[in-house]
Amino acid sequence: MKVSVLTPIYRTDERYLREAIESVLGQTFADFEFLLLDDCPEDNREAVVRSYNDRRIVYLKNDRNLGIAASRNRLIDLAKGEYLAIFDHDDICRPERLAKQVSYLDANPECGVIGGWTKPSCGTVNFNPEGDHAIKLAMMAGSSVWHPASMIRKSLLDACHVRYEAEYTPVEDYMLWMRLIPYAVFHNLQEVVLDYRWHEGNTSVVRKRELEDQVRRVQAWAKVNLPELYSEFEMSRKVQRRVRLFGIPVLKIETEGRETYVRLFDKVPFLRISRRYRV
Question: What is the pTM of this model?
Fold first, then answer.
């Protein structure tokens, strides 16, 4: 088995779930198993999943609610594939996503994690850096590998004894990447591989405050445990630009990590832009 597609389910809207399932079954790459783990025993989606007559689908259900981190870990332990394709229950895979990611991992055995760009249902394409060092540097500011568009070598997770950690939920994926930084080579395909469904039920909407607090906690961990990388990030993250009119500096633009500040005539605060953390 080449690929295991890993998808946790929790009270998923039936229409979204069907679109997600059909986007996986419609992949141009066919050598995969599709594991769907239902973490809501009292309100399951078994009938929806079993309505698809495809031998690659494996429907599983937790006897009790385990939470997202434990469910993702159970999927990893059950997976038979060489590569693990992470996929969420309400997103849509582009038809060649698996084929392109498998092709890259096959051709680059040193690479342990591969991602790609995503397109939100409302908004512009989420661009992420391509190469390993640029990805790791950007990781100090926020996740620079879009988790539900990623593919991981299972052997890497097993060799490093790395799994998702419930104490970092809802950014257990961000912490996973941090744990893998010393061991893995990262890469992002420079094209859209997944359509991300943005709605009011997204974790980044429902648990916004908790998410932001946990992001800061992960970054504090990185500062202590990845000091050289974090120091390089600190030195490079402040960018200043000035906009001049007739030689007079009218606007001063400063970018620090995920925050951009605009000041009039170098001093007067005018605008602040915060880039949202993505999960």
Answer: 0.84
